Amino acid sequence: MRKLLLYFIITLGYSVHIISTLPQTQSTLENEEVKALAFLEEEDRLLAEKCFQAAEANWNYNTNINDVNQEKQLNASLEYSKFAKISWQNLNSKFKSWSNFKDPDLKRRFKKSTVLGSSALPEEDLVQYNQLESDMTKTHSTTKVCAFLDSTNCNLSLDPDVKKIMKESRDEHELRHIWTEWHNKCGNRIRNPYQQFVKLSNQAARLNNFSDTGAYWLREYESDTIKEDFDQLYETLAPLYKQIHAYARAKLRYVYGDQFSSDGLIPAHLLGNVFASSLDGVYSLLIPYPQRASVDVTNEMKAQGYTPLKMFQKSEEFFTSLGLIPMPQEFWKESLIVKPKDREVVCHATAWDFCNGKDFRIKQCTEVNMRDFITVHHEMGHIQYYLQYKDQPHIYREGANPGFHEAVGDTLALSVQTPKHLKEVGLLDQATQIDDYETSINFLMAIALKKVASLPFAYIIDKYRWAIFDGSVDSSRMNSHWWKLRKEYQGVKPPVERSEENFDPGTIYHVASHVDYSRYFAATIIQFQFHRSLCKEAGQYDPQDPSKPLYNCSIYRSKAAGSKLAAGLAMGASRPWPDVMKSMTGQEIMDGSAIREYFKPLEEWLAIKNAQLGEVPGWD
Ligand code: X8Z
Ligand code: ZN
Question: What is the CA radius of gyration of the chain?
Answer without folding.
Answer: 24
